[in-house]
């Protein structure tokens, strides 16, 4: 069998196009023409010896072989970039200011900071775990370089919509949910202090379903919300990411609760042209988020969406 050696430059164009949802955007990001990107994709299919794309409406979607190729391409590029970092990592200096939503403070932050610190010991990181509204305010005012936050569609000037995550109703692990939509009693709702994006979505969906509700517990922190939910003081709404063991995700339709929409996860940047240290940290965050979301039922990153070669602006998802 002929040994196949994939071109890393071609793989980078492939992965970038899938991540951005458009190969026209990938061409802009990589400083190439769309025809050059198209030629690279043709070369990739020739090297693979099988189609990696199929028609999906006006765009393209991955075949089963294409999905396999994408997974390996990411790993090859990550390994390549890690090798480059190991050789030149000591050259990165300075500091990066990072903000994350509370859901990722215990699950994502230790891994991201550990990987970055080992590769770039001369870079200092200032990390802040705060609420969504504060993250957006701080990145737009230049107080943060990067911010990983939930979004209901709002985007800052320099941001990437990187994943879509299902929302879910959350209740205690111990004991049954004693409330039901048909009981006539208002739903006891445990919530974070306003303004809270997920609280607003929860009440909107309950109102739309004609289900009464009352705020039974308010907490300034996610830890307090988990404690109240575990104690049975009320149900709450969150995503499956970062749920502690003392609470559980309710099944769809359980207790007559309405189904919930999905929520966008966005990486905001303070500047279009960031420092090399900021770019490297953003890359590690994107990789960690991708692995976390893809392990979540119904969660997906936007590489799963159809992509296009069109030069027109393309909305993904």
Characteristic key phrases:
Arc Repressor Mutant, subunit A, D-Maltodextrin-Binding Protein, domain 2, 317 residues, disordered C terminus, 13 strands, alpha/beta, 22% strand, three-stranded antiparallel β-sheet
Summarize the structure.
The protein is built from 9 helices and 13 strands.
**Helix/strand structural class:** alpha/beta
General shape:
globular
CATH architecture of the largest domain: 3-Layer(aba) Sandwich
Which CATH C-level class of the largest domain is it? Alpha Beta
Q: Tell me what portion of residues adopts beta-strand conformation.
A: 15-25%
Order of helices and strands: HHHEEHEHEHEEEEHEHEEEHE
**DSSP helical segment count:** 9
Number of domains: 3
Average pLDDT across residues?
84
What is the name of the CATH topology of the largest domain? D-Maltodextrin-Binding Protein, domain 2
Give me the CATH superfamily of the largest domain. Answer: Periplasmic binding protein-like II
Low-confidence spans: pLDDT under 50, at least 5 residues? 309-317
The count of β-strands is 13
Structure commentary:
It is a single chain. The protein has 317 residues and is α/β, with parallel strands linked by helices. It folds into three domains: 81 residues, Winged helix-like DNA-binding domain superfamily/Winged helix DNA-binding domain (Arc Repressor Mutant, subunit A), CATH 1.10.10.10; 102 residues, D-Maltodextrin-Binding Protein, domain 2, CATH 3.40.190.10; 93 residues, D-Maltodextrin-Binding Protein, domain 2 (3-Layer(aba) Sandwich), CATH 3.40.190. 38% of the residues lie in helices and 22% in strands. The strands form four sheets. The protein has a six-stranded mixed beta sheet. It has a three-stranded antiparallel beta sheet with strand order 10-7-11. The chain has a two-stranded antiparallel ribbon with strand order 1-2. Helix 1 packs across helix 2 and helix 1 crosses helix 4. The longest helix is centred in the N-terminal third of the chain and has 25 residues. It is globular, with a radius of gyration of 22 Å.
